Amino acid sequence: MSRIGKQPIPIPTGVKVSVDAAKRSVDLQGPKGKASLSYRTEIVVSFDEAKKSILCGLDDDKLIDVGDRRAYWGTTRANIRNMVEGVTQGYIRKLEVVGVGWNAKVQGKKIVLMLGYADPIELGITDGLKVEVDQGVNITISGTDRQAVGQMAALIRSQRKPEPYQGKGVKYQGEVIQRKQGKAFGA
User: Fold this and answer.
1) Mean pLDDT rounded to a whole number for the chain
2) Of 146, 155, 169, 183, which sees the most CB atoms within 10 A?
3) Which residues contact 167 (CB under 8 A, 6 or more apart)?
4) By the 8 A CB rule, do 179 and 164 touch?
């Protein structure tokens, strides 16, 4: 029995839920936007209108390894819960650019990073995400899809990870960089 999978997912007011068992999909619409998920055949998802909650379960007709079924069950429930939070509150990731003369700016549907290389780095912004740059060094990524927000933040950070000697690079807000002493001159 999956401890996570058996828990009902409460649906806040203002969120419209559509569960299609034939297409095996869940669609949510809330104040921040829309989200949809296609789930596996081993899982059964239902919406309880009286309790305003979504329930996930196992389809007993499918014959596969029990451990895999429980993993899919818990993962499906967690993904639907993330969708509910995304359409009601949204997800935000903040990054900081640290370095003299290093900055970022948004131009249309792409973000341009100046990170000490000879040429600027241009990255396309994923559909459904909103990227803002404050004072050229503070990057805010927001959206309804948790995975997409995290992926975009990781892509931007991977262009120049923070180095341990001077701390220059792109880091998550609040991330602590372990500093190294460097070389000591003289004897």
Assistant:
1) 90
2) 169
3) 98, 177, 179
4) yes
Q: In Å, how far are 62, 138, 184 from 143, measured between CA atoms?
A: 35, 17, 46
Rounded Cα–Cα distance for residues 77 and 56 (Å): 6
| Domain's final residue, options 53, 88, 123 | 88
Residues 125 and 145 in one domain: yes
- Report in angstroms the alpha-carbon separations of 150 from 10, 28, 153, 166: 24, 20, 5, 26
Reported pTM:
0.86
- Identity of the residue numbered 79: N
Closest Cα to residue 12, out of 85, 111, 116? Answer: 85
Q: Which pairing describes strands 53-58 and 43-48: parallel, antiparallel, or unpaired?
A: antiparallel
Q: Which of 124, 148, 149 is nearest to 140 (CA)?
A: 149
For residue range 75-98, list pLDDT tens digits in order.
999 999 999 999 999 999 999 999
The CATH code of the domain that includes 48 is 3.90.930.12
What's the domain range around 33? 9-88
Residue 71 included in any domain: yes
Please identify, among 30, 59, 88, the residue that sits at the C-terminal boundary of a domain. Answer: 88
Task: Answer yes or no: do 110 and 125 share one domain.
Answer: yes
Q: Considering the domain boundaries, does residue 180 fall inside one?
A: no
> What is the rounded CA–CA span in Å between residue 31 and residue 48?
21
